[in-house]
Each structure stands twice: as structure tokens, then as C-alpha cells.
Amino acid sequence: MDGAVLLTGANGSLALGFIECLLSHHPQITLIATVRNTSPDQDPNTANLLQLIARYPKARFHLEAIDLGNLAQVRSFAGNLADQISSMKLPRISAIICNAATFSFEAGQVLTADGYEATFQVCHLSHYVLILKLLGSMNKVTGRIVLLGSIVHYPENPNPLYSLRPGFPDNMDDLLHPAPDPSTLVHDKGFQRYATAKLANVTLAMDLNRRLQKDDQLSGITALAMDPGGLPSSRAQAGQKQSARRLFMIIDFLMPVLRHMTRMFRTVQDAGQDLVAVSVGADLQGHRGYYIGTKQAAPAAVSEYREAQDKLWEVSWRWAGLTAEETVLQNAAPIV
User: Fold this and answer.
1) Which of 9, 54, 89, 134 is most buried, judging by how many CB atoms fall within 10 Å of its CB?
2) What is residue 124's DSSP assignment?
3) What is the pTM of this model?
């Protein structure tokens, strides 16, 4: 596979594992990597990314700034990228990897520049907009859309890290404008918001496949959601409560053994290799659905319900202020 790969959150822990594997095994691919801050002097994570890229002097690499907490920036970025592709300054997109995420467990609710709850906008809504606006710039025969899921997205499964389960509220507007968190549930509400955003990603992947397969021009594009596994060495673990951080430190210490015994926990290198496989690997070309690493699995039941898919699509479209002219996907605009 050649073409371009668009990766959001490119200076995150999983992204670095992905990029190292991609550049090692697929040097012909153009990587369009997005981060919030492209300055290595201002962002140490971007500095780590550029140090990695420097090891591959022949890499076809483009670093772009985008704040997924600002829908105007998302639109502008997508429009500029589409223009570069249509003018053949960049190859068509082979894969869109919706990797960027944020959460706030201990600090309570955080709002974006748009005034929306940050976890849901960054993890889900802005990626929804990116995907729809860039479908026309994708390889329409073998293109892939990869959304990041998680073991925590299942409403039917309890999780020992928090007491609340993910799910779509009766009033979907609560996803972007939640009520204040009770003081005793700040952490658990934050975790619930993160898990629900992951549920939204999985639901979108299932929904996209149905919609793409009905579109004669886009039916070759596939969508899947992937759980990379728990990443105990990820910088994201710093946002956990102290007891969880200690647990993940122990797990990380044991990873040289655990990586051969379970796929529940992964090193960023192994998870990055899996992400390369599902996004550009030949073995998974044309595959759809939900994956844990490179193994197909059952997603949350609600993610496959047509009613839940339509409800999430309609409110996401409305929240983003999209119009039918902004995407090539047929019948994308909800029927009001």
C-alpha cells in the first residue's frame, strides 16, 4: 500500500509506536501527522516525535497543527488538506487514523474553545467532522478509517477502575453539555465520559460501514474500531488516580512476561505494530468491524443498534453544524 496516512494525536505514546513501525516497514507511505503544537521547544511530546522522525531521513513526513477542540480549525485543516490532494501535492489518503484523545478524571469537566465538553469533542466529534470532510480525498478502492476503541467502551461489562458504566443518555445533548459532577463522583464521571466517547467511536465505525456500503462511489472504503489494549507505559496513565497509577507501574514492570501471556496489556511498540496492521497491512485489507489488536471481536451490543447509530449521527451532524455540501457521502444529512 502507498498513498498517505492521516494520523491525529501523532505525538502520543501509541502514535510513536505506530510511527516507528510504519516508517520501518512502509517507507513508501506519506505520513500526515497532526498535533496541537508543532513546536518542539514548547511541547516535549512533539520534540520526542521529531527525534523519532530524524532517525528516518528519507521519511515522507508532514507535521501539521490542529486543535481538535476547535471545530473551525478542524474544518480549515480538512479543507486545506483536500486542496493539496486535489492539486496532487499530496497523494490520496489510504487511511485516516483517529487516534487523538483527551480526558479529565481528577480535575473535573473541561470545556473546549467551542464550549463543548472536551473529552467527547476531541475523542469523537472532531474526528466525525474530519472523516466526513475527507472522504472525497480518500482512496475509494482500498481506503480505511480506523477509530480507536477501548476495553472500557462496553456498557455491559463492569470495570474495576470506576463505578459508572458508559452509555448514551436519553438527552444526547448531555454528552457535550453535561450537568455538574457530584463532588463524590468527579473521577468516575470523568472516566464515564471517556468510556462513552470510546463507545461513540465504536458506534460510528459500525454505522460508517453500513453507510459506505450503500454508496456506490465509496463502498470500497472500510471502517473499523480497534482496541489497542491497555498501555501501562503510556503517558496518559499520569491522569489516573494514584492507586491506578501504582497498579499500572507494577503491570509495566511485569510487561516483559505479560506481553507473552495476554493481549489485555500491551507495550506501545506491540500496540503500534497492531495499529499498522489494521490500518495499512495487507492481511486486513477490506476488513470491517471491531478488533482487539489484530483479532476481530464483538463490540458493545448497542454499537450495532441502528437506532443508537442514527441518534448519534443526527446529533453529531447537528453539533458540528455540517451541511450536505461538506461531504461526498450520499444521504449523509439526517432527515429532519
Assistant:
1) 9
2) I
3) 0.92
